[in-house]
Amino acid sequence: MSIEKPISRRRDVLGVHSIHEFVFSVPDLKQAEHFYRSFGLDVRVETNCLALFTYGHPHRWARVIHGDQKRLLWVTWGIYADDQDAFNKKLNDLGVRRIAAPVGANPDGMWFTGPDGLPQQLLPSEKCSPDTKSPRIFPPEISSSGRAPHRSQVKQVRPNRLSHILVFTADVDSSVQFYSEVLGLRLSDRSGSIIAFMHSQHGSDHHLIAMASSPGCGLHHSSWDVTSFDDVGLGTQQMSQAGYPEGWGVGRHVLGSNYFRYVRDPWGSYSEYSFDIDHIAADLEWPAGDYPPEDALYVWGSPPPDDFTKNYEIGSELQLSKAVAPSETPTIK
């Protein structure tokens, strides 16, 4: 009996298929190299930057550039090559402001200003978001040698791929509108105007991008898929031994369902080990919900650090436990 191959593209819709790359700056590249190598990423030194890969995967997920401070610089979205003309027309029709490529960026594709003035790019590329849910490893029910990993045989936890990023935004509602109308992303879930999660129509994890309310733009965390719950715990231990004990978790999210450990980096943002996140296939109509604030972060685990939602790129903070009044949605232009 043949097994049907999952579709990797929803027909007759216009939308980005992946986060092709995100780029941010930090004041110390040597420190960044140590942090991300310790985290388990394949860090490669390229001209004037660090390139973040995952072992066994050819895709470059991110770049880290030297700068005066930690700052999210731009996001590149992957699109299908035959959608270029349609996207170009859409950007023009909606009056989206075009810009030149930032210094050090690939000038190809379409560059424009996104929410909060964040430079963004549409680039024809191969789809790197998953078509199916990631493999999951659980201890076998019966084993003559025990079901726990042997401490003497533990190897470095190495994530499989990028799952998503969470960015700060001054207006969650208008950001959802922008990413929906301009990029064709779909709302997965939200908690009022506090936080929202969006996925690709062409199949992706529960969210490619999430937006949390803050007075300005910033990168809160990047999330990296791992294969087992043990990987989350071992990653916690691995980073603590490397000198990065601070963070949040282990715990489990409500929205997205994944088990997590957030590791605080030297600049106040996080990298997340993520296991067993919900997957939204290209042919699935996900029932997006609007949930109370207590469901916005976690179902179990220790409480997050007091400054977990602080945007260190602008030094601001919003408590997700407090309601935020919706603001008037601005136009796309």
TrEMBL record:
<dbReference type="Pfam" id="PF00903">
    <property type="entry name" value="Glyoxalase"/>
</dbReference>
<feature type="domain" description="VOC">
    <location>
        <begin position="161"/>
        <end position="276"/>
    </location>
</feature>
<dbReference type="InterPro" id="IPR037523">
    <property type="entry name" value="VOC_core"/>
</dbReference>
<dbReference type="InterPro" id="IPR029068">
    <property type="entry name" value="Glyas_Bleomycin-R_OHBP_Dase"/>
</dbReference>
<dbReference type="InterPro" id="IPR004360">
    <property type="entry name" value="Glyas_Fos-R_dOase_dom"/>
</dbReference>
<protein>
    <submittedName>
        <fullName>VOC family protein</fullName>
    </submittedName>
</protein>
